[in-house]
Design brief:
The chain is built from 13 helices and nine strands. With 296 residues, it is of the alpha/beta class. The chain has a seven-stranded mixed β-sheet, sandwiched between helices. Strands 6-7 form a two-stranded antiparallel ribbon. The protein is globular.
Length: 296
């Protein structure tokens, strides 16, 4: 791993410097980073949900399992020699999995606290094939074209002001025919779970505006058709989209008994219910997350 002495790259350098307002005016999605840093200060152990001591360990593990059930078959068909981009890696939720499977990984995230936790988990697991960058997605503008065999960007482009521009940045650095893995927050699933408590905010979201919570959160929501159109408009081929109702953070969160999430039999039952939701056209659109696999 590189970047032991972190140097911010891209717009995020402004956010952590003396020009926070300018950074947020350029990219309001950086409100998410401020929110993360605030939560890390308040509850650092809980924010590292790869740590069994975190209150969110089992809940996040559940959603990761749901993700990988859909994505793993596509990842396993790719050569181990592939060079992979993990865009918006966070605390390393998928970074360690990807690093164990592929020859080289380049990962970046704009949250310094998240990146430090990610580095800790990589060191803990003895993984040294990861190049880490403290950066927002704009740093890809200076990366060479057609470099990566795989681009992995879960829950990233929906946290940027212009998801189309962000997706084009990701595609630019991918080789022709590279596999692209993406996910975005679902429109109805998000509205049902975000606790929008102001009628004005709700009306704005219903009219197509992003959710903005100052110094906390920024989200551009998608429905299945809107997500599919975005992927089509940027020219991705062989696109497959699947829903995830993300039980721990979705519309059915009340149905989960957190105390039983350490029991894999119970988790498997939840996953079966997830499969039912995907197969039911009335429920499917309530997805918390839409996942996609495509090819450049």
């Amino acid at each position: 791993m590189t970047k032991r002495a972190w140097q911010a790259e891209g717009i995020v350098s402004l956010l952590y410097g003396k020009d926070k307002k300018r950074a947020l005016s350029i990219e309001p999605g950086l409100h998410n980073v401020l929110g993360l840093e605030s939560y890390f200060k308040k509850k650092p152990v809980d924010m590292d949900f790869l740590n069994p001591s975190s209150a969110f360990f089992h809940l996040k593990n559940l959603s990761t399992q749901i993700y990988l059930r859909s994505l793993r078959p596509h990842l396993e068909s790719i050569s181990h020699e592939a060079i992979v981009l993990d865009a918006g890696c966070g605390i390393g939720r998928f970074t360690t999995y990807l690093a164990e499977r592929f020859k080289k990984l380049v990962a970046f995230d704009p949250s310094l606290s998240s990146l430090n936790v990610c580095r800790h988990h990589l060191i803990e697991q003895g993984l040294h094939n990861v190049e880490l960058h403290w950066a927002d997605i704009s740093f890809l503008d200076h990366w060479k074209r057609n470099f990566f065999d795989v681009v992995f960007a879960t829950e990233l482009i929906c946290y940027t002001t212009d998801p189309m521009k962000s997706l084009k940045r990701l595609i630019r650095v991918a080789k022709p025919n590279a596999k692209i893995f993406l996910s975005v927050e679902g429109y109805l699933g998000g509205l049902c779970t975000q606790g929008v408590d102001e009628p004005q905010t709700l009306l704005g979201i219903l009219s197509g505006k992003p959710l903005i919570l100052e110094n906390n959160r920024f989200v551009v929501y998608f429905n299945r058709d809107g997500f599919g159109k975005l992927l089509c408009d940027v020219g991705l081929k062989d696109v497959i989209i699947e829903e995830s109702h993300f039980f721990g953070e979705g519309v059915f969160w009340q149905s989960i008994d957190d105390s039983r999430l350490g029991d894999q039999t119970y988790v498997n039952m939840i996953i079966r219910a997830e499969d039912f939701c995907r197969a039911n056209p009335l429920i499917a659109e309530l997805a918390r997350v839409f996942m996609a696999v495509g090819k450049k």
